[in-house]
Amino acid sequence: SVVDFVKPKIEKVSAQVTARDTMKIVFNATDKYFDYSKTNLSAGDITVYVDNEKADSITKSLSRKRIDNGYQYTLTLTKFIENSRQDGKSYKEWSGNVTIKIAADTLTDRAGNVNVENNLDVDFVDFIKPEITYQYSNADIDYDEKTVQIVFSVTDKYFNQSTLTIGDLIIKIDGEDISDVSTVTKTLTQSATPLT
To answer: 6-40 as b/e, with b when 16 or more CB fall inside 10 Å?
Structure first.
Protein backbone atom coordinates (compact mmCIF):
# COMPACT_ATOMS: atom_id res chain seq x y z
CA SER A 1 0.00 0.00 0.00
CA VAL A 2 1.05 3.58 -0.59
CA VAL A 3 1.93 5.74 2.41
CA ASP A 4 1.45 9.44 1.72
CA PHE A 5 1.55 12.15 4.36
CA VAL A 6 2.67 14.92 1.98
CA LYS A 7 0.29 17.81 1.38
CA PRO A 8 -0.14 19.41 -2.06
CA LYS A 9 2.20 22.37 -2.51
CA ILE A 10 1.85 25.73 -4.27
CA GLU A 11 4.72 27.54 -5.98
CA LYS A 12 4.76 30.85 -7.83
CA VAL A 13 6.01 30.62 -11.41
CA SER A 14 5.80 34.22 -12.60
CA ALA A 15 4.08 37.58 -12.20
CA GLN A 16 3.90 40.29 -14.81
CA VAL A 17 2.00 43.39 -15.79
CA THR A 18 0.31 42.54 -19.08
CA ALA A 19 -1.71 45.72 -19.71
CA ARG A 20 -2.68 48.97 -18.08
CA ASP A 21 -4.21 48.11 -14.70
CA THR A 22 -3.76 44.35 -15.22
CA MET A 23 -1.44 41.79 -13.65
CA LYS A 24 -1.16 38.06 -14.34
CA ILE A 25 0.19 35.67 -11.71
CA VAL A 26 1.08 32.09 -12.64
CA PHE A 27 1.49 29.42 -9.97
CA ASN A 28 1.64 25.63 -9.85
CA ALA A 29 -0.29 23.38 -7.51
CA THR A 30 1.30 19.92 -7.44
CA ASP A 31 1.53 16.66 -5.58
CA LYS A 32 2.99 13.27 -6.54
CA TYR A 33 -0.49 11.78 -6.15
CA PHE A 34 -2.53 14.86 -7.11
CA ASP A 35 -6.28 14.26 -7.26
CA TYR A 36 -7.62 16.18 -10.24
CA SER A 37 -11.22 15.14 -9.56
CA LYS A 38 -11.37 16.60 -6.05
CA THR A 39 -9.44 19.83 -6.57
CA ASN A 40 -11.74 22.80 -7.01
CA LEU A 41 -9.69 25.92 -6.32
CA SER A 42 -11.59 29.02 -7.50
CA ALA A 43 -10.95 32.78 -7.59
CA GLY A 44 -13.12 33.11 -4.50
CA ASP A 45 -10.57 31.06 -2.55
CA ILE A 46 -7.88 33.68 -3.20
CA THR A 47 -7.55 36.92 -1.26
CA VAL A 48 -5.49 39.84 -2.59
CA TYR A 49 -3.48 42.12 -0.32
CA VAL A 50 -1.61 45.30 -1.22
CA ASP A 51 0.91 46.50 1.34
CA ASN A 52 -0.67 44.00 3.76
CA GLU A 53 -4.12 45.57 3.36
CA LYS A 54 -6.99 43.49 2.00
CA ALA A 55 -7.92 44.77 -1.47
CA ASP A 56 -11.42 43.43 -2.18
CA SER A 57 -12.10 45.93 -4.99
CA ILE A 58 -9.47 44.31 -7.22
CA THR A 59 -11.17 41.98 -9.72
CA LYS A 60 -9.95 38.36 -9.92
CA SER A 61 -10.33 35.69 -12.58
CA LEU A 62 -8.71 32.27 -12.49
CA SER A 63 -7.91 29.75 -15.22
CA ARG A 64 -5.99 26.50 -15.11
CA LYS A 65 -4.34 23.88 -17.27
CA ARG A 66 -3.32 20.36 -16.43
CA ILE A 67 0.38 19.68 -15.93
CA ASP A 68 2.33 16.69 -14.61
CA ASN A 69 1.21 16.00 -11.04
CA GLY A 70 -1.14 18.96 -10.78
CA TYR A 71 -2.53 22.15 -12.28
CA GLN A 72 -0.93 25.38 -13.43
CA TYR A 73 -3.13 28.34 -12.55
CA THR A 74 -3.19 31.83 -14.03
CA LEU A 75 -4.71 34.48 -11.80
CA THR A 76 -5.60 37.72 -13.57
CA LEU A 77 -6.01 40.82 -11.42
CA THR A 78 -7.62 44.00 -12.77
CA LYS A 79 -9.11 47.27 -11.51
CA PHE A 80 -6.25 48.29 -9.25
CA ILE A 81 -7.20 51.95 -9.78
CA GLU A 82 -10.13 52.92 -7.59
CA ASN A 83 -12.53 55.65 -8.74
CA SER A 84 -12.21 57.70 -5.57
CA ARG A 85 -10.11 57.96 -2.45
CA GLN A 86 -10.90 55.78 0.51
CA ASP A 87 -12.05 57.49 3.68
CA GLY A 88 -9.07 58.78 5.64
CA LYS A 89 -6.63 58.54 2.72
CA SER A 90 -5.23 61.46 0.72
CA TYR A 91 -4.37 59.28 -2.29
CA LYS A 92 -6.04 56.65 -4.46
CA GLU A 93 -5.43 52.93 -4.07
CA TRP A 94 -4.26 50.30 -5.02
CA SER A 95 -0.49 50.44 -5.46
CA GLY A 96 2.27 48.68 -3.55
CA ASN A 97 3.52 45.20 -2.79
CA VAL A 98 0.99 42.57 -3.88
CA THR A 99 0.49 39.35 -1.94
CA ILE A 100 -2.11 36.64 -2.55
CA LYS A 101 -3.45 34.26 0.07
CA ILE A 102 -4.72 30.89 -1.16
CA ALA A 103 -7.17 29.23 1.20
CA ALA A 104 -6.46 25.90 2.87
CA ASP A 105 -8.29 22.70 1.88
CA THR A 106 -8.70 23.67 -1.78
CA LEU A 107 -6.19 21.17 -3.24
CA THR A 108 -6.35 17.44 -2.63
CA ASP A 109 -4.26 14.36 -3.32
CA ARG A 110 -5.47 10.78 -3.65
CA ALA A 111 -4.59 10.01 -0.02
CA GLY A 112 -6.89 12.80 1.16
CA ASN A 113 -4.12 15.22 2.11
CA VAL A 114 -5.11 18.85 1.55
CA ASN A 115 -3.05 22.00 1.23
CA VAL A 116 -2.38 24.45 4.04
CA GLU A 117 -3.07 28.16 3.58
CA ASN A 118 -0.46 29.64 1.28
CA ASN A 119 0.80 33.21 0.98
CA LEU A 120 2.61 34.13 -2.22
CA ASP A 121 4.63 37.34 -2.46
CA VAL A 122 3.92 38.58 -5.96
CA ASP A 123 5.47 41.91 -6.98
CA PHE A 124 5.31 45.69 -6.57
CA VAL A 125 2.81 47.44 -8.85
CA ASP A 126 1.85 51.07 -9.28
CA PHE A 127 -0.60 52.04 -12.04
CA ILE A 128 -1.79 55.25 -10.39
CA LYS A 129 -0.68 58.66 -11.62
CA PRO A 130 -0.17 61.56 -9.19
CA GLU A 131 -3.50 63.30 -8.61
CA ILE A 132 -4.01 67.07 -8.61
CA THR A 133 -6.75 68.42 -6.35
CA TYR A 134 -7.87 72.06 -6.46
CA GLN A 135 -8.64 73.71 -3.13
CA TYR A 136 -10.48 77.05 -3.13
CA SER A 137 -11.64 79.51 -0.50
CA ASN A 138 -12.91 83.09 -0.68
CA ALA A 139 -10.30 83.92 1.94
CA ASP A 140 -7.63 83.35 -0.74
CA ILE A 141 -8.83 86.42 -2.69
CA ASP A 142 -7.54 89.90 -1.72
CA TYR A 143 -9.70 92.44 -3.56
CA ASP A 144 -7.73 95.42 -2.23
CA GLU A 145 -4.35 94.15 -3.40
CA LYS A 146 -5.90 92.49 -6.46
CA THR A 147 -4.32 89.15 -5.72
CA VAL A 148 -5.58 85.62 -5.63
CA GLN A 149 -3.95 82.60 -4.12
CA ILE A 150 -4.79 79.30 -5.80
CA VAL A 151 -3.98 76.29 -3.65
CA PHE A 152 -3.81 72.79 -5.08
CA SER A 153 -2.32 69.55 -3.87
CA VAL A 154 -0.47 66.85 -5.76
CA THR A 155 -0.70 63.49 -4.03
CA ASP A 156 0.35 59.93 -4.72
CA LYS A 157 0.96 57.04 -2.35
CA TYR A 158 4.49 56.70 -3.72
CA PHE A 159 5.11 60.35 -4.61
CA ASN A 160 8.80 60.86 -5.35
CA GLN A 161 9.55 64.38 -6.53
CA SER A 162 8.15 67.34 -8.44
CA THR A 163 9.79 69.47 -11.13
CA LEU A 164 6.68 71.60 -11.60
CA THR A 165 7.42 75.27 -12.33
CA ILE A 166 5.24 78.32 -12.97
CA GLY A 167 6.01 77.88 -16.67
CA ASP A 168 4.21 74.53 -16.63
CA LEU A 169 0.92 76.17 -15.62
CA ILE A 170 -1.65 77.65 -18.00
CA ILE A 171 -3.50 80.44 -16.22
CA LYS A 172 -6.82 81.66 -17.60
CA ILE A 173 -9.27 84.41 -16.62
CA ASP A 174 -12.73 84.17 -18.19
CA GLY A 175 -11.28 81.67 -20.64
CA GLU A 176 -8.43 83.93 -21.75
CA ASP A 177 -4.89 82.65 -21.35
CA ILE A 178 -2.89 85.17 -19.30
CA SER A 179 0.11 82.93 -18.69
CA ASP A 180 2.42 85.23 -20.69
CA VAL A 181 0.88 88.60 -19.76
CA SER A 182 3.76 90.64 -18.32
CA THR A 183 1.56 92.84 -16.12
CA VAL A 184 0.38 89.83 -14.15
CA THR A 185 2.88 88.65 -11.56
CA LYS A 186 2.88 84.91 -10.95
CA THR A 187 4.74 82.89 -8.34
CA LEU A 188 4.66 79.23 -7.36
CA THR A 189 5.62 77.86 -3.97
CA GLN A 190 5.39 74.32 -2.67
CA SER A 191 5.44 72.65 0.72
CA ALA A 192 5.61 69.01 1.65
CA THR A 193 2.58 67.52 3.36
CA PRO A 194 2.68 64.07 4.97
CA LEU A 195 0.29 61.60 3.34
CA THR A 196 -2.52 60.10 5.36
So the answer is: ebbebeeeebeeeeeebbbbebbbbbeebbeeebe
Q: List the chain pLDDT tens, one digit each, 196 residues.
A: 678 999 999 999 999 999 989 999 999 999 999 999 999 999 999 999 999 999 999 999 999 999 999 999 999 999 999 999 999 998 999 999 999 999 999 999 999 999 999 999 999 999 999 999 888 766 678 889 888 888 888 999 999 888 898 889 998 889 999 888 888 888 898 887 766 6
| Three-class SS state of 146 | coil
- How far apart CA 87 and CA 189 sit, in angstroms, is 28
59, HSE (Cβ side, Cα atoms, 13 Å): 7
Backbone dihedral angles phi then psi of residue 173, each to the nearest 5 degrees? -125, 125
Backbone angles phi, psi at 191, to 5 degrees: -140, 145
For residues 16 and 124, the answer to whether their CB atoms sit within 8 Å is no
CA distance 155 to 135: 13
